[in-house]
């Protein structure tokens, strides 16, 4: 089938995630009409209109269908490995100790700078393929391991190429303010000048940036420096998001909300004031249980307070080499439920409709007419099973932009 062709999927159970009450939106004995890469109709098979019935039919054999999963926070494009730091932490070193000694993010910066664009793509494609095998159809990929114009552009071009060569929709995020470039040691404000005045405008002109992120933290950048990055991004018409309140409360969540930010991510040290600001701005809380688990943290994000304030909750892998080397979004759902007591419904909303919102994408995340035809098909008894079984992968088929395929994909040629 090509994107221009139509298809009627029948004999399926649907979790549309489009219910007005915020539920699963279950449709028993459901059907979906796909045409032109979009969902043309969705509902009970018995109610399918004549135009849908005229399309070629694919029997789903009773599988569940959900929107394609959205991993809305990853650093999946990088080079190198940091298992040595993981071992050091198990022997008593802290994340901050390692970072201040020249490890942490800087170790990955050195490896990424040394890799060619093609080598970077090859390494990253292995990780991306693992995510796609579990029903991911949209993927956010951040830069931030280059820390100069040449290498940040290399990362973002590799991310764009991944979206061209693999069956996944890629959203790119410029994270130049991830760590202080070694060439600017002791001159953080000068580096922020470089990010705002040279790097960001050049990358935006090349069409490589969909959003802008920063790391507002004691080992990252200050509130004031982050605000400068945000002002530059908004001046170019780009939306912003933020690594906020992961290791301490720097007021980052309130800051990103002030700029109408798409999301604030991590949030273990989020304050009541930050929650209130996010609620007013409609900023999504992106929860990253992989980093919490991998760093053996004990302070949980304030889930109950976020719920009470009506802040949308998203869940992502945070796939990165230092704090969350995770290539399973389904495992992230399980962790969010088991460690933080999200409900399975909240977890699934967190990687569909709310994850789409965290990327500013209104055309994915639900099964509804007009939406992009990105779907995942699952051999499960009920939707909660997606967050239930540790290490299981019940994905049986995926539809990307109207094209039906197996979930496992071949890698780009070397």
Describe the structure.
The chain has helices at residues 50-53, 83-90, 95-100, 105-114, 117-132, 149-165, 188-205, 223-235, 252-258, 272-281, 289-294, 303-309, 329-340, 344-350, 353-358, 385-388, and strands at residues 6-15, 26-35, 38-44, 57-59, 64-67, 69-71, 136-142, 169-177, 211-216, 241-244, 263-266, 284-287, 313-315, 375-378, 395-400, 403-405. It is globular and about 70 Å long. With 414 residues, the protein is an alpha/beta fold. It has 16 helices and 16 strands. The model has no long low-confidence stretch (mean pLDDT 96). Strands 1, 2, 3, 4, 5, 14, 15 and 16 form an eight-stranded mixed beta sheet that branches. The chain has an eight-stranded parallel beta sheet with strand order 6-7-8-9-10-11-12-13.
Note the topology.
Elements: E1 6-15, E2 26-35, E3 38-44, H1 50-53, E4 57-59, E5 64-67, E6 69-71, H2 83-90, H3 95-100, H4 105-114, H5 117-132, E7 136-142, H6 149-165, E8 169-177, H7 188-205, E9 211-216, H8 223-235, E10 241-244, H9 252-258, E11 263-266, H10 272-281, E12 284-287, H11 289-294, H12 303-309, E13 313-315, H13 329-340, H14 344-350, H15 353-358, E14 375-378, H16 385-388, E15 395-400, E16 403-405
Parallel strand pairs: 1-4, 1-5, 6-7, 7-8, 8-9, 9-10, 10-11, 11-12, 12-13
Antiparallel strand pairs: 1-2, 2-3, 5-14, 14-15, 15-16
Helix pairs in contact: 5-6, 7-8, 9-10, 13-14
């Amino acid at each position: 089938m090509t994107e221009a062709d139509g298809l009627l999927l029948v004999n399926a159970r649907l979790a549309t995630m489009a219910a007005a009450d915020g539920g699963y939106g279950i449709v028993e004995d459901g059907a979906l009409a796909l045409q032109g890469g979009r969902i043309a109709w969705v509902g009970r098979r018995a109610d399918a209109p004549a135009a849908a019935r005229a399309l070629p039919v694919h029997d789903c054999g009773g599988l569940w269908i959900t929107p394609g999963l959205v991993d809305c926070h990853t650093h999946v494009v990088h080079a190198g490995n940091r298992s040595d730091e993981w071992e050091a932490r198990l022997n008593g070193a802290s994340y901050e100790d390692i970072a201040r000694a020249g490890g942490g993010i800087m170790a990955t910066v050195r490896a990424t700078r040394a890799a060619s664009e093609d080598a970077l793509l090859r390494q990253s494609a292995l990780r991306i393929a693992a995510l796609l095998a579990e029903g991911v159809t949209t993927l956010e990929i951040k830069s931030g391991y280059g820390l100069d114009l040449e290498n940040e552009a290399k990362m973002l071009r590799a991310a764009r190429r991944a979206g061209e060569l693999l069956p996944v929709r890629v959203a790119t995020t410029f994270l130049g303010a991830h760590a202080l470039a070694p060439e600017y040691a002791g001159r953080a404000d000068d580096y922020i000048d470089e990010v705002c005045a040279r790097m960001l405008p050049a990358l935006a002109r090349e069409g490589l940036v969909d959003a802008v992120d920063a790391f507002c933290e004691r080992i990252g950048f200050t509130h004031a420096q982050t605000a400068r990055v945000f002002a530059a991004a908004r001046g170019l018409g780009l939306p912003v998001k933020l690594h906020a309140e992961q290791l301490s409360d720097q007021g980052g969540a309130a800051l990103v909300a002030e700029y109408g930010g798409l999301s604030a991510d991590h949030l273990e040290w989020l304050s009541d004031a930050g929650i209130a600001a996010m609620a007013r701005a409609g900023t999504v809380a992106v929860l990253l249980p992989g980093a919490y688990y991998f760093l053996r943290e004990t302070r949980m994000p304030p889930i109950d307070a976020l719920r009470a304030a009506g802040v949308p909750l998203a869940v992502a892998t945070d796939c990165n080499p230092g704090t969350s080397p995770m290539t399973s979004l389904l495992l992230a759902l399980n962790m969010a439920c088991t460690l933080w007591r999200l409900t399975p419904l909240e977890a699934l909303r967190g990687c569909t409709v709310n994850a789409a919102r965290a990327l500013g994408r209104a055309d994915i995340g639900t099964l509804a007419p007009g939406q992009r035809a990105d779907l995942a098909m699952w051999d499960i008894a009920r939707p909660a099973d997606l967050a239930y079984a540790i290490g299981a992968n019940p994905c049986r088929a995926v539809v990307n932009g109207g094209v039906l395929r197996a979930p496992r994909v071949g890698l780009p040629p070397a």
